[in-house]
Write a structure and sequence with these properties.
The chain is built from 5 helices and 9 strands, in the order αβββββαβαβαββα. It is an alpha+beta fold and 181 residues long. The chain has one domain: Glutaredoxin (3-Layer(aba) Sandwich).
Length: 181
């Protein structure tokens, strides 16, 4: 619950939040906050359970979505295109459905399929831990698993801003690797 309180505080008081038309916003988290670890069942593009710790060492975009979310019809295909764009980089996209009924998520994914792993949080526990405050909500994590940006909502063009953020983190990742040698 401590992380939830921190994230809520950032969302409510952050002077660095930028708001776009349509109610979408991007919040820079500075200093970065460690993302919570979790384990959820995979429903597409992976088998068994996945955990947040499975993606450490990669820049990860954790996208919370739901079948009833209108903007998710735009965001999932846009994120899938970014997944292809960064396929050769240490970047991982991950979708977390918050649908209560798994079949609703599967029906949605038949229409708006993605090539990256999808897990489901039918109880909403992980969404609450992340203080999800709108659909879709995305969390950009650095290679150490720390939340660097929070994206709430989605409109066309948001994927371009996200791509720039990912490129900055990739640059930081390369710089830190060079510094270690």
């Amino acid at each position: 619950m401590k992380l939830r309180a921190l994230l809520l505080g950032i969302l409510l008081t952050s002077p660095v939040a930028t708001y776009g038309a349509g109610g979408n916003s991007v919040v820079t988290v500075n200093p970065p906050i460690p993302a919570p670890d979790w384990t959820l069942p995979a429903i597409q593009n992976a088998k068994g359970n996945l955990s947040m710790s499975d993606f450490r060492g990669k820049i990860t975009y954790v996208d919370f979505w739901a079948s009833w979310c209108g903007p998710c019809r735009l965001s999932l295909p846009a994120l899938n295109a970014l997944n292809s764009q960064f396929a050769d980089d240490p970047v991982q996209f991950l979708a977390i459905s918050i649908d209560v009924v798994e079949e609703d998520a599967w029906d949605f994914l038949k229409r708006y399929s993605v090539d990256y792993p999808v897990v489901i949080d039918t109880e909403g526990d992980i969404a609450r831990t992340f203080a999800v405050d709108g659909m879709p909500s995305g969390y950009l994590l650095d290679g150490q698993g720390r939340v660097r940006e929070i994206h709430i909502g989605f409109k066309r063009g948001d994927e371009l801003k996200l791509a720039e953020s990912i490129k900055r983190l990739l640059s930081d990742l390369v710089t830190s690797e060079v510094d270690e040698t």
